[in-house]
Amino acid sequence: MARRRLDRDHIRLPQQRRGHPQGNTSDFFNSLLEHFWRTDSFAASAREKGNLLKSRLDQLVQKYDPREASAKGRGMMRGIDLKSGEIAGQVVRIAFQKGLIVETAGPKEEIVKCLPPLVIREDQLSQGLDILEEAIESVIGSAVNATAKEVNHAKPHH
User: Fold this and answer.
1) What letter does residue 67 receive in the DSSP assignment?
2) Which of these, 125, 112, 152, lies nearest to 53 by C-alpha position?
3) How far apart (Å, rounded) are the C-alpha atoms in residues 88 and 17?
4) At 2, is the pLDDT very low, low, confident or very high (cuts 50, 70, 90)?
5) Is pLDDT above 90 for 122?
6) pLDDT band at 27 (very low <50, low <70, confident <90, very high)
7) Residue 112: count of CB within 10 angstroms of its CB
């Protein structure tokens, strides 16, 4: 049996298995800070994307009764409170089928969390928000539309 020579690139140290390079964790994060925060453009970009996320989620929830959906959070850590873990779970499943990974939070898993990476491009963020909007529409939008039709049919026609 032939033996393969192992060099240090083949040896995985415990800290490498956790997703960061060999070395001191604080050195790793210091180098990240130096790279991304060399100028304030990275922080400005994250702020802009946080504003886009807030704006889109606010617009999305305005389509629904506040008892059905509300936006919450700050910066790039936001979510939509769908008031029901069952509904939020359905939204997460449909979003996943469409290619978006989101998860739930809250005491009853009623919040769909939006935690995009700080380095996401705006077009990717918008695409993900489009998918989320479609998923929510397919779950609670159909219920809202059905209720509106029932109300319209119940009104006397003159």
Assistant:
1) T
2) 125
3) 33
4) very low
5) yes
6) confident
7) 26
Q: Are the beta carbons of 92 and 103 closer than 8 angstroms?
A: yes
- Say what the pLDDT of residue 42 is: 86
More confident position, 84 or 147 = 84
Mean pLDDT of 105-131: 96
- How far apart, in Å, are the Cα atoms of 101 and each of 56, 68, 91, 92, 117? 18, 22, 11, 7, 12
